[in-house]
Every structure is written in structure tokens, then in C-alpha cells.
Specification:
Number of helices: 1
Largest sheet: none
Shape: rod-shaped
Order of helices and strands: H
Structural class: mainly alpha
Helix content: over 70%
Strand content: under 5%
């Protein structure tokens, strides 16, 4: 393989790695959004409030 072929191969590997990293970030973001929505729902319904002392 010539040097230019290795350069193209290296560039493709970098972009594939970058794309995989972006997919990972998007999945984490979606997970955090679902978690936050669940927390907001529980706060609105009062599930996380401490019991009142008498």
C-alpha cells in the first residue's frame, strides 16, 4: 500500500471512531432525558416528598 492509501485508511478510522463516539453520546443523552422525565413526573405527583410529622 502506498502512503496515500494509509492516510485515507487512517482518516476513515478517525471518522468511524468519531461517529461511534457521537452515537454513544446520543444514547447517553437519551437515557438522561428519560431519567429526568421520570424524576419530573415523580416530583409532580408528590412521590418524593417526605412524610409529614405530626
Amino acid at each position: 500500500m502506498s502512503k496515500i492509501d494509509w492516510l485515507w485508511l487512517g482518516g476513515a478510522a478517525v471518522w468511524l471512531g468519531f461517529g461511534a463516539y457521537l452515537v454513544l453520546l446520543a444514547r447517553r443523552q437519551a437515557s438522561l432525558e428519560r431519567r429526568l422525565a421520570g424524576l419530573e413526573t415523580s416530583v409532580r405527583s408528590g412521590n418524593d416528598l417526605p412524610a409529614e410529622e405530626s
